[in-house]
Amino acid sequence: GDVIHRMLTATQYIAPLMANFNPSYSRNSTVRYLDNGTVFVVQWDKVYLQGKEDMGSFTFQAALHSSGRIVFGYKEIPVPVLQISASQHPVKAGLSDAFMVLNPSPDVPESRRRTIYEYHRVELDTSRISSLAAVEFTPLPTCLQHQSCETCLSSELTFNCSWCHVLQRFC
């Protein structure tokens, strides 16, 4: 999206492993990306947890395919993810999306208040994340494949569409 806000890591993310990583700790630590037009890959290579460098380095990646498929690959996970402290930074893995609406503020008529609506979250069981593991997400059909609300609502797909008062349309 085009809006950066402090709730971004809580509501909008694609996270193979979110934690308090410090890529500047070692000269061997890198965060690299590749985009070949069909797949966009981000790899965290030999990254360490801030203040917990003795735990060892982590290597993992996220691959976003143009088909909508997402693959998380874990090469080196030196400790169980459940042992990573969330006191300095959230520890999670999965997908989340939200949208923001600017509403008029009742206190100051000329100002607007940002409201974030998280509409979907998939949380991975972090106890299942280990070295040489992978997770694949395959997209379900959505209304976006239809050309109009009418064709979406009359489709054979099993959506749970409902009226959204905020957007004034079916979602």
UniProtKB/TrEMBL annotation:
The keyword Transport does not apply. Its main location: membrane. It is a single-pass type I membrane protein. The keyword Membrane applies. Keywords: Membrane, Signal, Transmembrane, Transmembrane helix. GO terms for cellular component: membrane. It is found in: Membrane. PANTHER family: PLEXIN DOMAIN-CONTAINING PROTEIN 1, TUMOR ENDOTHELIAL MARKER 7 RELATED. Belongs to the plexin family. This is PLDX1 protein. It comes from Motacilla alba.
